[in-house]
Design goal:
single chain, alpha/beta, 5-stranded parallel beta sheet, 17 helices
Length: 408
């Protein structure tokens, strides 16, 4: 069993909030993680079981009263009626005891079905996002929010060794825990089942998709767009569907944490020349590779999409380093009308770090000239980095470093 960084955040939040909700895609390990809290006195029930779900629907109050508090409810989105009961119990506990922290841990995979219940519990619930395994979790090393610090990069570079071949094997296999617990699983067969069992089923519970084959084509098309600018009109034209349909289907995938959008960075002085469209990233590179029919690492490594998939992999690793520690990912990208682009702009606490992501190993100062574009920023510019397949940390300019991916 992999040690998940998020566990310590849950331990902290159950002391501060009555309800902790863990939201994330299917099969990222939510159930395995929360089940560990049964050792802390929590009861456990999963609404994935149809009979249990029917019981919760028939009498939500009696259902919760049949379990000893504190209680874990897995896949709570299947029965939204439970939120009203949970809210009532929390309110009663607060009135009677003055506080009600640590009463419920909930998990959910469909944010759209969770929204109303979450809104009704404002101030009572802490929401945290969970994704697949990070490199740090896979290798059993401490995971900290990433900053491109020379000192930090040097301290982390020898925690484990990973070469280009292994990187693309990881990208294609993805980061869902079961694929790493059981190395004998064929990832293509796994993802075929994953799409049919979870994505298509969950989406069709939310919206009525008459043409299942068209939705499959949509999934494959956007998988090939991972790491690229999102232009919905191009997708609509390519698939001969309405732009409104594209936006609707994208919103479902975002809510299910299958994809996320990285928005463009701008300051007031830059708004006239900055590109305002977001970039799209799959939260699991293995799923994207399967959908885009790039499931062989040797083929992907030499494919025209290799850079975009490597960028998706790195952006996800950095994003997880924040979310796994209970922090908001402070990331943006930058592109202007002159096609100048910076892959990642990290802005936090009045400070800015700029990141380029490249599949090479050797770089010089000219490779970092793009960082000069944001010299007029009002933020304090700290160290910047090129994250690459390099096996060492080295400087290519003042406060600019080349960093291997194991230093994330």
């Amino acid at each position: 069993m992999y040690k998940r960084t998020l566990k310590k955040e849950i331990e902290k939040l159950i002391k501060q909030f009555p309800v902790v909700l863990i939201s994330g895609p299917r099969q990222v390990g939510k159930s395995t993680l929360v089940h560990q809290f049964t050792h802390n006195g929590f009861s456990y029930v999963s609404l994935d079981n149809l009979n249990i779900r029917a019981s919760a629907n028939a009498d939500p109050l009696q259902f919760i009263q049949s379990y000893k508090l504190p209680l874990i409810i897995d896949e709570v989105q299947y029965e939204p009626k439970l939120f009203d009961v949970i809210q009532s119990i929390v309110n009663q506990e607060r009135i009677g005891k003055g506080e009600a922290n640590g009463l419920f841990i909930l998990t959910g995979s469909q944010e759209i079905n969770l929204e109303k219940g979450i809104e009704s519990m404002a101030g009572r619930v802490a929401i945290i996002n969970m994704y697949g395994l990070s490199l740090s979790e896979l290798h059993g090393v401490e995971e900290l929010p990433f900053i491109p610090s020379f000192k930090r990069a040097n301290e982390r570079k020898d925690n484990y060794i990973i070469n280009k071949k292994e990187v693309f094997e990881l990208i294609v296999r993805g980061f869902l825990p079961e694929l790493h617990r059981n190395k004998n699983i064929d990832s293509e067969i796994y993802f075929q089942s994953y799409v049919q069992t979870y994505i298509e089923r969950d989406v069709m519970q939310i919206i009525n998709i008459k043409d299942k084959l068209l939705f499959q084509s949509f999934l494959r098309y956007i998988a090939a767009l991972t790491g690229q600018e999102l232009i919905t009109s191009h997708i609509a034209k390519a698939l001969n569907i309405r732009n409104e349909t594209v936006n609707s289907w994208l919103s479902i995938l975002i809510a299910s944490k299958i994809i996320f959008l990285l928005y463009p960075y701008n300051e007031f002085s830059l708004t006239k020349r900055v590109i305002k469209r977001p970039k799209i990233y799959f939260t699991d590179t293995g799923l994207a590779a399967y959908l885009a029919r790039l499931s062989h690492p040797e083929n992907l490594a030499i494919n025209k999409f290799s850079g975009a998939f490597f960028e998706t992999f790195v952006i996800n690793e950095i994003m997880k380093s924040y979310t796994n520690n209970g922090k908001t990912f402070p990331g943006f990208y930058y592109r202007d009308n002159n096609q100048n682009e910076i892959d990642l702009v990290l802005v936090s606490q009045g400070k800015m770090n700029l990141i380029e992501i490249k599949t090479g190993m050797s770089f010089n100062k000219s490779d970092a000239n793009v960082f000069n574009i944001l010299n007029k920023t009002k933020f304090i510019k700290e160290t910047h980095a090129i994250i690459s397949l390099s096996d060492r940390v080295y400087s290519i300019g003042k406060d600019i470093f080349v960093i291997p991916i194991q230093s994330i």
